[in-house]
Amino acid sequence: MRVSTKGQVTIPCEMRTKLGMLPCTEVDFILQDDGILIQKQHGSKRKGSKLLEQLSGKSRLNMSTEYIMKLTRS
Q1: In angstroms, rounded to a whole number, what is the distance separating the alpha carbons of residues 29 and 36?
Q2: Domain total for the chain?
Q3: For the ranges 3-7, 33-37, 38-42, which has the lowest average pLDDT?
Q4: Is residue 60's pLDDT more than 80?
Q5: Which domain holds residue 5?
Q6: What is the b/e burial string over 12-42, where b = at least 16 CB atoms within 10 angstroms of the residue's CB?
């Protein structure tokens, strides 16, 4: 691998697949005496989960569930 002008490197596909590193997976960089350890963050939430968490319970509309369902079905 070669470091790009932006300081980026590509993690080979087989390694990403084996580690379950999907797009938007967060990683940690750990400096060691002889190099850098790149480690998948454990317990970090994916982008979709974060968005759902932020939106959960945020509605300010005073509509019943039945009314909302009627709107979405028509």
Answers
A1: 6
A2: 1
A3: 38-42
A4: no
A5: 1-43
A6: eeeeeeeeebeeeeeeeeeeeeeeeeeeeee
Residue 26 lies in a domain: yes
Q: Which helix (H) or strand (E) holds 31?
A: strand 27-32
Record the pTM. 0.51
Q: Are 18 and 40 in contact (CB under 8 A)?
A: no
Other residues' Cβ atoms within 10 Å of the Cβ of residue 62: 6
Q: What percent of the chain has pLDDT over 70?
A: 91
What is the rounded CA–CA span in Å between residue 11 and residue 7? 13
